[in-house]
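Field notebook, page 311. I keep forgetting to write these up properly, so this time I am using the form the group agreed on. The chain and the ligand, norvaline, are recorded exactly as supplied. Prediction of the bound pose follows.
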Amino acid sequence: MSVPIKKDLLSVSDLTHEEIESLLQQALSLKQRGPCDLLSGKSLALLFEKPSLRTKVSFDIAMHELGGHTVYLSPAEIGLGQRESIPDVARVLSRYVDCIAARTFSHETVTTLAQHSTIPVINALSDLEHPCQALSDLLTIYEKKGKLHGLTLAFVGDGNNVANSLLLAATLSGINFHFASPPGYKIKDSLLQQAKKSAAASGSGINLTSDPYEAVKEADIVYTDVWTSMGQEAEAKKRRLAFSQYQVDNKLLDSAKSAALFMHPLPAHNNEEVSAGLIDKAQSVVFDQAENKLHMEKALLIKLLSPSNLV
Ligand code: NVA
């Protein structure tokens, strides 16, 4: 039975709890099934203002394995908002392709694209959110732990796009969300208010602290991300200082539950947010996370482009 579709996926909060469950089932089924032709004849524009390895390749291969086609538009090719206005890019692409996956600096750029497109727009990372990452991560957690509800995820680091989307995805799915950051790098209040409503509905909890050890205590998942996101390079030195006590190392990971997973969206900076060698430990599932982007993005593309094919 298919669930109602929204036109765009700009934020995790565009989805209900039921839609997330349906996407997880769809992604698991597509992972088993391998290549199939569910999106034959469909095309996707990958419109990227920032670099990408995983998101770019996984969307490209997802479309290929579903029988569709992608067109990659690099930052230099478009000059989004400079050479050509964002509304015009949206209107032109809507005449050629069936979907846009956009990676942008400002979140407003993806919302403007969505506003002026007649086709679905997927947020493939903006400064505010990274919904495809968070949804793929739920798939990895579900595969490893056999459930989502009642687990505790501790995010140690910056209140950035990845943390924001994980907070929304976790609280919608009944996962307790613990977050530790230095004082100036907290999650935005507007997102927290939204997440508190989901947490109340799903029965999960949110715990914000400046102490990484408090955050990881009793955690089933320890998650971190870069201290300096794309576009913040000028602040790298300041951020290295601010986050120096927030590295995930063996001692911190050992303070979580003994079977805790270590997660990171990659690229990782060894000896910054994660100590050298930690991503090679048995507890680390970072490459499963990378693979699962392929399966979750397939599920998303089918949901947005061909919902009658949802399982
Ligand atoms: N927070 C990081 C995530 C990269 C996948 C960034 O925006 O650069």
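OBSERVATIONS:
- The pocket of norvaline is lined by residues 125, 160-162, 225-226, 229-230, 265 (CB under 6 Å).
- Residues 1-6 have pLDDT under 50 and may be disordered.
FOLLOW-UP: compare against the apo run.
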